[in-house]
């Protein structure tokens, strides 16, 4: 028994090198297992930390599959079987596949870490998602070319086939291709990003951007319905991005009575002074307060200014404060806000006119006020 065992481990045997590979792989697997906790506890928002975190599972699986492969080769050589394993570039193929898996894990880890961090707004979520998708696509293409080369196939044929197939596919699915290029333009031009409020005056599109894909963009409308917009549409429509506004505008017409014509100048001056001294109003932007015209029932005063906030809820709170302050100014000067009125002028005897009004109201002519 000992003689057969010693013969099995004889270095002069053809299969001894495979036995050595099996032993080394097994030892490396045990060593890797002992470093698992250290590898998976690395910070994932840094490249080297993400690389070490992502390396454990691909490396363990690569060592295990290589171990299985060497065991198969050892069995083939020990029992002199004719499986033809030597003609298969298994190690190279396994290395390529697991390197691609490792790359995918690194990209996914960094993408999730950057999207989850509090600085994701500064880093631009849309750009992070776009770069991650491009990296994954490139790794898939490189893996396919390397696999063709290892299998003895000409990768130029794959490239040519891909070009011809791509042209045929482009003609057959032009809408899909246009949406794909539309998605690329969205990632490059960045007219909006995830989380922005967008609207289009050309189409009934308004809401918050939730997702930008290669084919469609998902927008959540303000009544909480999801709206799926093909990316190609953004090449042909005008898109507003209110999320990037620097200020919000207050533009109101204040109407006072014609009886208050003498107070209009003082009212205008006090409203302008209030706006120019208010911390709610942007002082570096245009402020206009002027008597702007004679209305049908009122003297119209134009109030035009910009608030310092862009938040929708805060803006309405500031506008509420400004309008109440303007109302106090009008009241302080003894003025009143006008409302639609009509004056009826009656000529002749009042009693006769009253009787005529009672009998035939249709015959009375009401001149304009």
TrEMBL record:
| Primary localisation category | membrane
Where are the membrane-spanning stretches? 15-32, 61-81, 87-107, 128-151
**GO molecular function term, any single one:** mechanosensitive monoatomic ion channel activity
Keyword Hydrolase recorded: no
Its cellular-component GO annotations read:
plasma membrane
Q: Which residues form the Mechanosensitive ion channel MscS C-terminal domain?
A: 253-334
Task: Tell me where in this chain the Mechanosensitive ion channel transmembrane helices 2/3 domain is found.
Answer: 136-174
Q: Identify one Pfam family in the record.
A: MS_channel_3rd
Q: Where is the Mechanosensitive ion channel MscS domain?
A: 175-244
Task: Specify the protein's topology with respect to the membrane.
Answer: Multi-pass membrane protein
Q: Which InterPro entries match?
A: LSM_dom_sf (IPR010920), MS_channel_1st (IPR049142), MS_channel_C (IPR049278), MscS_beta-dom_sf (IPR023408), MscS_channel_2nd (IPR006685), MscS_channel_C_sf (IPR011066), MscS_channel_TM-2 (IPR011014), YnaI-like (IPR045042)
Which subcellular locations apply to this protein?
Answer: Cell membrane
Extract the SUPFAM superfamilies matched here: Mechanosensitive channel protein MscS (YggB), C-terminal domain, Mechanosensitive channel protein MscS (YggB), transmembrane region, Sm-like ribonucleoproteins
- Record's family? Belongs to the MscS (TC 1.A.23) family.
Query: Can you say what this protein is called?
Result: Mechanosensitive ion channel family protein
Naturally occurring in which organism (per UniProt): Psychrosphaera ytuae
């Amino acid at each position: 028994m000992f003689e057969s065992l010693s013969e099995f481990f004889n270095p002069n045997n053809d299969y001894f090198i495979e036995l050595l590979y099996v032993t080394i792989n097994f030892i490396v697997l045990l060593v890797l297992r002992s470093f698992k906790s250290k590898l998976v506890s690395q910070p994932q928002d840094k490249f080297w930390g993400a690389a070490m975190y992502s390396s454990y599972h691909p490396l363990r699986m690569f060592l295990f599959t290589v171990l299985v492969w060497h065991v198969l080769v050892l069995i083939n050589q020990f029992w002199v079987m004719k499986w033809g394993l030597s003609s298969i570039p298994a190690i190279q193929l396994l290395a390529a596949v697991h390197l691609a898996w490792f790359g995918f894990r690194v990209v996914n880890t960094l993408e999730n870490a950057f999207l989850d961090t509090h600085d994701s707004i500064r880093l631009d979520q849309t750009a992070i998602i776009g770069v991650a998708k491009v990296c994954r696509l490139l790794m898939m293409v490189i893996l396919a070319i390397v696999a063709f080369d290892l299998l003895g196939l000409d990768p130029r044929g794959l490239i040519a086939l891909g070009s011809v197939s791509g042209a045929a596919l482009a003609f057959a699915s032009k809408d899909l291709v246009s949406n794909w290029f539309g998605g690329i333009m969205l990632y490059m031009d960045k007219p909006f990003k995830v989380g922005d409020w967008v609207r289009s005056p050309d189409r009934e599109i308004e809401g918050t951007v939730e997702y930008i894909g290669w084919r469609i963009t998902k927008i959540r409308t303000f009544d909480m319905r999801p709206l799926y917009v093909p990316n190609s549409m953004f090449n042909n429509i005008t898109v507003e991005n209110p999320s990037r506004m620097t200020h919000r505008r207050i533009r109101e017409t204040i109407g006072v009575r014609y009886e208050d014509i003498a107070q209009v100048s003082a009212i205008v001056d006090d409203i302008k002074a209030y706006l120019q001294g208010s911390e709610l109003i942007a002082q570096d932007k245009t402020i206009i307060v002027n008597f702007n015209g004679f209305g049908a029932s009122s003297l119209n005063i134009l109030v035009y200014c910009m608030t310092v906030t862009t938040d929708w809820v805060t803006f309405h709170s500031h506008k509420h404060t400004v309008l109440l302050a303007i109302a106090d100014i009008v009241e302080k000067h003894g003025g009143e806000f006008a409302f639609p009125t009509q004056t009826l002028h009656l000529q002749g005897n009042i009693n006769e006119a009253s009787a005529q009004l009672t009998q035939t109201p249709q015959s009375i002519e009401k001149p304009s006020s």
